[in-house]
Design a protein that fits this description.
about 100 residues; mainly beta; Hypothetical Protein Aq_1857, Chain: A; 4-stranded mixed sheet; about 10% helix; about 45% strand; globular
Length: about 100
Amino acid sequence: MNLTVEPVLNKWLSAKNRDIITVDVIVSRGGGCCGGCSFVETVIDYKKPKDDQGKYLLFNKDNLSIYIAKVLEKKTDHITLYLKGSLFKRIALKGYEADCSWKK
């Protein structure tokens, strides 16, 4: 998996003295009309995961340590982290979807 951090986000994080990001998800098991998986929410934190146990991929980019939950399956071969919002800014992702691996 390839990961890009847009320069505006990197500058914003640097100004806030943040150098660790964890990207996790809440996945509903059994959601959808036919028991499919439902991607509910992306959760982003500014510290290492509490309970890694091999659940995260670690990327070191632009002086950042970025933990990405392995449950995120790429729609392409690339995920991009970017800054979203004007007054209230937040981190967002492009290029992901939930993985229903428990159904395989």
